[in-house]
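Q: Convert this sequence to C-alpha cells.
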Amino acid sequence: MLKTKLDKKNFPLCEAEIDLINNQFISNGWLTLYATNIFAVMIKKSYFVKSQKYDSWDLRPCDSHPTINEFGSTASGYRRFYEKGIEPIVIYREQRGTHSQQICFSEEFVLFYDLREVRENENIVKYMLVDECGDDNCIAQIENSKALVQLKYIKEFLAVKQMNLLIQFEYIKHSNKTLSQIGVSNKYWNTIKNNEYVLGYSVLNSPCPINSENLSFAMIRGKVWFEYDDSDIKMLWNYHDTNTEKFIIGVDENGDNIEITCDENQLPNLFTRKGEEPYALTPVFFKKEVLSKYYENPGKFTIHEGYMNAPEWWLRFDNDRTDNYVVAVLIDLGKIPYKEQQHWKQYNIVPPADASISETTQKRWFWGEPCDTTNAPDHLFKFQLQKTNDLWKQKFGWELFKPLAEKDQHHIEALHTMSERDNDKEFDGLIQSVTKIVIDSLNEKEITKTTDDSNSDVISFLKSKDCSAAKDLKGGIAKFEALLISLGQPNTDIIVQFKDIQELRSTTVAHRKSSNPDKKHLELFARFELDKISQQEVFNKILLRLVDNFKVLQSIAENKISCPSTK
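A:
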C-alpha cells in the first residue's frame, strides 16, 4: 500500500482505479502482474532512475520477446528483450493464425522456484511450489488472462536479481454525462510524481461522442514500483521448517506427561544415554487413526508393513499389531517435515500399561533379522494373497486373482484394519475393497478353461445349475466352485465365505440400508456377528478367515494334483 495515498476525489471517473493504485495492485497478499490495463516489468536500478521521471510505459506486452536489428550486424543487433535493463516477468504472445493469445510466467521465474504447472481448466493455470511434505502450494496463477503472484515470492525474486519492479497501468474511463453534469471542469494532462509512483491524468468532454455512453472520459496512465530489498530473501525456493515437536513418551512419578523433543541433535543414542533417560530409539505410541489421513490418499501416500512412503519423505513404524496403536521412535519422527510432526502429535498418547513393540519390529529394528509379517490381519491378508497367486502361477501357469486395474489399485494399497470400533463409512469401503480384490478379481477365463467338464462330480454340479459347461455358469464364485470340484478339492468354507462377503457387500455397499432389515439380512448379520461385536472385530475376522482360506488354496497348488487339460 502506498505511503502517500492519492485522493480519489481528485480523479473523477477513475475512483476505482485510484483504489487499485493506492493498494499497489495487491489484494490479500496477491500482486497483479498482468491484466488488460496492467503490465509489470523488472528494471535495472540504472534504468529505474530515468523511468521515474515520466508516466509512459517502458515496455509493452507485445515487446516481451527477443528482438533483432534486421538492418545491422546480426551479432550486435540481437537483444534478449526490446529494451536493455528491462525484463518482463509475464510473457505475452499475440494471437497468430488460429492460435489465441498466450500468457505465461517467465521461464526464469518458473525454474528458479522449480514450479510445476497445473492446468485446472482452459482458463486457469496454477504454478505450484512443492514443499518438503510433497504438498502443492500455489504461488502464482494465470486466470482469465490475468496473472497474479504471491507478493513475498516476487519480492524475493527481485532481491535475488537485484532489480526493481514497475507496475505499469493505463485506463480510459467513459461516462454518459458531460463534465458540467458531473460537476468538474476540463483537466488536461497533469503529471504527478513522488518516490512511490508517477502518473498522468486528464478528464475531458468527448470531442466526437459516438453515442450517449461516452459524453466525457478520463485517462490515467503511469506506474507504481517496488524497490528490491535484500532482507526479502528468505530462501523460499528451498524452504525447510526447522522446528521440531515434542512427543509424550511416558509419565513421571506425579502422573504428569513426559514430553521429549524429537530433534536428533538433542537426543543421546543407546550408548551415550545416562541411566533411564530418553534416547533416540525411545518408542512413541500413537492412536491408529494417525494413518487415516494417508490411507484416504493412496495416490500420494503408500503404507507398507513397517513403513510408509510420501512424495518427499518416509517414516518407519511398527504397525504389525493387533491393537489400536502405531509405534515410531523419536529419531525417525524428527526426520519427517514439521507439518507432519504436528499431524502425528495430535494422535500421540501415553504408552499403555503393557506397552511393547511387536516381535516382528523387534527382530527387524534391533536384531537385524529379516522376517515376514505375523500379526496385523491386513498385512497377513496381502502377504497370503500374493503367495497364493505366486503358487497358482507356478502350478497352473496363471494367477487365481487377477491384478487390479490401475484405477482400482487403491483398493489393495489402502486396505487396512479399521482405526475405530464402529464406522459405517470405513466399514463399507473396506468390504467393497475386499470384494473387488478377491471375488471380482477371480480369473474366470482361466478358471473355466482349466475346469474339466467331463468330471462326473463337475457334471452333477453343472446339472444342479442347469448348465452344460463351466463357462455357462453365472458368476465367478460358481465357476471357481466348479474348478475346485474338478480338482477333487471341493471346499465348502471357501465358497461359503466368498458368497457371504459378496452378499455383505450387496447389503452394506451396493444398496440402501434399511431401518427395518428383513429376515435374510438379519441372518447375514448374525453370521458375521454384526449384532454382537464391533465392525472392527468383524472385519478383522473376515481378513483372518480369508488368510486361512488362502492357505488352503496354497496347499492345493503345492500338492501333486494333476492339472486338467486346458480346453
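The chain has a mean pLDDT of 90.
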